[in-house]
Amino acid sequence: MSMNHEELVQEIETIEAIYPDLLMEKLSDCTIIRIKIPQHEYVTVQISFPKEYPSEQPPNVLEVNINKNSLSYDPKYILHLFQEVMNSVYHKEVCVFDFLTELDGVLYIEEDGDDNDYVEDTKMLVPLDPFEGWVSSEPITDRKSTFMGFATRVNSEEEAFAKLEQLKMDPKIRKGNHIMSAWRVKQGDISFQDSDDDGETAAGSRMLHLVTIMGIWNIMVVVVRWFGGTHIGPDRFKHINSTAREAILKAGFERKE
């Protein structure tokens, strides 16, 4: 038995011990399993494990079934969403437990006070595309940190905040160490502008300065940084500025001299 397969078997045995009533099916060699999602037992997912798992490749989500007749959902979208979640939690080590845990945050539920049953919010089952309305820059990677800019048009502060929350629905965006943002909105004679560093000191204000000197209104710009473990000093601000500017221009905002 290879080391990869030993790790896989141990992982499935651990999952079965933690969730004894949820593992519905497994092949004798554990290369395919079918399991219910904890806290969302009406959702069943079938997962296959390539030979290179967990050292080289993530598991594959083969099928997702939602056993509630009252729900309408797009099977292709749900399958794509679950695979994105799987990819986001995979870091060349066993990841099924993290996958199941992460899905608890993706599948929003609320408890029905009358019968203590769970009622699924269908808007969350088939959510908006997190990137709808957003235009992105090309990513910049430097010493294992990756930066990526996003820009969108907004007509109010409320819309700006809503668009930001929409973007954060994507699992990979949520994995970002810093989600920095700046917005400028003008409604008649009233204007709003502000920024959020999200832990990257002065990053949001620099992005707001960029938008201001470009003379642009009714915009929300976001830069996400995935930190790779190596500090890169002031170069991070260069990458933040560059990806923000690229996203702004790609979104069709023109610099006003």
Structure description:
This protein has 257 residues and is α+β, with helices and mostly antiparallel strands. The protein folds into 2 domains: 3-125, Ubiquitin Conjugating Enzyme, CATH 3.10.110; 135-250, Impact, N-terminal domain (Ribosomal Protein S5, domain 2, 2-Layer Sandwich). The chain contains 8 helices and 12 strands. It has helices at 3-18, 75-89, 96-106, 122-125, 157-167, 171-174, 203-213, 235-250; strands spanning 23-26, 32-37, 40-48, 60-66, 109-111, 118-120, 135-136, 140-142, 145-153, 178-187, 190-196, 219-226. Strands 7, 8, 9, 10, 11 and 12 form a 6-stranded antiparallel sheet that branches. It has a 4-stranded antiparallel sheet with strand order 1-2-3-4, covered by helices on one side. A hairpin with a 2-residue loop joins β2 (32-37) and β3 (40-48). The protein starts with a helix and ends in a 7-residue tail after the last helix. Mean pLDDT is 85; it is low at 109-127. Keywords: Cytoplasm, Membrane, Repressor, Stress response, Translation regulation, Transmembrane, Transmembrane helix. Belongs to the IMPACT family. It holds the Pfam family RWD. It comes from Tetrapisispora phaffii (strain ATCC 24235 / CBS 4417 / NBRC 1672 / NRRL Y-8282 / UCD 70-5) (Yeast).
